[in-house]
Design a protein that fits this description.
This protein is an alpha+beta fold and 471 residues long. It contains 10 helices and 10 strands. The protein is rod-shaped, with a radius of gyration of 49 Å. The N terminus is likely disordered.
């Protein structure tokens, strides 16, 4: 009897042990199944597309969904001037609360977050207001969901956006481009866009991750929360204002320095002698080289209604070069006129040789009076022909009376008078040539000084404009 009772207790103890082992295994199996993502998705009932996809995930429709936007600039690929568009690479983080999702991490092996495809949950209708081209961003179709219902979407964006350029200070210009995020359909009563980080944080993060591979340097990013009113309806927005500064070294080396050298070379050509004709050919060659630079500058500038100060300066220098060539042609014409017998007009003597020469501090030799030396040995130039005729008639009448010595003296006097007339005409011609040369010299000096003053003033204005920051 005692052995039977002992056997029964032994069997019962073994049965209890087997039951405990079975329950332990079942508990382990249950724990392993609860650690799977699929068990959590079944627990959340994510297969209900009407609940999670077709409606805004709020318990009360009168409560707006707050969407937190956080964007940083990773790179400025190109700021196109002809189309006035900004091609940039952004890192975008978007967070919101889904009221239909929550779980206890302790029931699922401490799982606090999980990732799931985009087509399982509702997404805000995010729109970028400055977008100009199709979205060619890398596709990241994954969402991060946390146990408290917060959903986060992180993705890179290759954005082609509109940017109004101010090129007045080109190439030392600073540009401000805006990127505005907001819902396309939902109003401010339904979705509220909020910037997750302030301006200083976004600027610092962007500078840390910014890749300098182009001609632009990132200065600052300003973040604003705005409301857009359209047809009396408010739409929430987050506006990023990106301030960029152009790196001008390429334009200084390839455009500004050659233009400056050509201007100095053209001014130095004013000191080439105008009589030889080399100055005109030299200046035309310089103008052709400067015209090539203007064509290059035209290709670099965007199509705007405001001309850059550099373009105005180059156009002014080109106009001065043309004026200088025309002045050289005028001086050559005056030099050519000096070889003719025409005299300098009186008005030109008055305004050029008298007034302009005095202003330009040019010493001019006054032309001797034509009648000052006319009465040499009692005769004038106009009286030389009549006197010689009278002497010939008188010699004919008295040829029989006078001696051979008197006739010889009269002929000698006639020859002297002819020589004097020839010398007087040569002197008048030389004085006319000197006057034309002096007029050409004074005008050439005036053009040279005008050229120099115009270049100095325009370069001073250009440097002042470049020194003042334009935003």
């Amino acid at each position: 009897m005692f052995h039977k009772i002992t056997l029964i207790h032994t069997v019962m103890a073994k049965s209890d042990l087997i039951i405990l082992i079975i329950f332990a295994h079942l508990d382990v199996l249950f724990s392993e199944d609860s650690c799977e993502y699929f068990q959590l998705m079944e627990h959340l009932k994510l297969t209900d597309s009407v609940r999670f996809l077709q409606s805004r995930p709020v318990d009360d429709w009168r409560k707006p969904t707050q969407v937190f936007i956080d964007s940083t600039v990773a790179n400025i690929i190109q700021l196109e001037g002809t189309t006035q568009s900004l091609i940039s690479l952004l890192w975008l983080d978007m967070k919101w609360k889904n009221s239909f999702i929550s779980w206890d991490p302790n029931e699922f092996c401490g799982m606090e977050s999980m990732t799931m495809p985009l087509d399982l949950l509702w997404l805000p209708d995010l729109y970028i207001y400055e977008i100009m081209d199709d979205d060619v961003s890398p596709v990241v179709n994954v969402l991060e969901v946390k146990h408290d219902g917060s959903v986060k979407q992180s993705k890179p964006i290759r954005l082609v956006s509109a940017c109004k350029l101010d090129i007045f200070g080109f190439p030392f210009d600073t540009q401000r481009c805006t990127i505005t995020f907001g819902p396309y359909v939902h109003t401010v009563e339904q979705i509220t866009m909020v910037a997750a980080s302030n301006s200083s944080v976004v600027t610092q993060l962007s500078r840390d991750n910014f890749s300098k591979r182009g001609e632009w340097e990132l200065l600052h990013i300003d973040v604003q929360n705005l409301n857009l009113s359209f047809s009396g309806i408010l739409y929430s927005q987050v506006k990023y204002t990106i301030t960029l500064k152009r790196i001008p070294i390429v334009y200084v080396v390839n455009l500004i320095c050659p233009a400056g050298f050509l201007i100095i070379l053209d001014f130095a050509g004013m000191f080439i002698s105008v009589t030889g004709g080399e100055r005109l050919g030299f200046k035309i060659t310089v103008v052709l080289g400067f015209l090539v630079l203007l064509l290059i500058l035209n290709d670099q500038l965007p199509n705007t209604d405001v001309s850059p100060i550099l373009g105005v300066f180059c156009l002014l220098c080109f106009a001065l070069m043309i004026i200088s060539i025309m002045g050289t042609i005028g001086v050559l014409y005056m030099v050519e006129m000096s070889s003719m017998s025409s005299e300098v007009p009186s008005w030109m003597k008055k305004w050029v040789l008298k007034h302009m020469a005095k202003v330009l501090l040019v010493k001019t030799s006054h032309t001797a009076d034509a009648g000052a030396d006319e009465n040499i040995i009692g005769f004038s130039n106009s009286s030389v022909p009549s006197t010689s005729i009278r002497m010939e008639k008188a010699s004919e009448k008295t040829s029989t009376k006078d001696s051979n010595e008197a006739i010889l003296l009269k002929k000698l006097l006639l020859e002297i008078l002819m020589i004097r007339r020839h010398l007087a005409n040569a002197r008048l011609k030389e004085e006319s040539q000197n006057d034309w040369h002096m007029v050409a010299y004074v005008l050439d000096r005036f053009i040279c000084i005008f050229y120099f003053c115009s270049i100095v003033i325009s370069m001073g204005v250009l440097i002042i404009v470049w020194a003042i920051p334009h935003t």
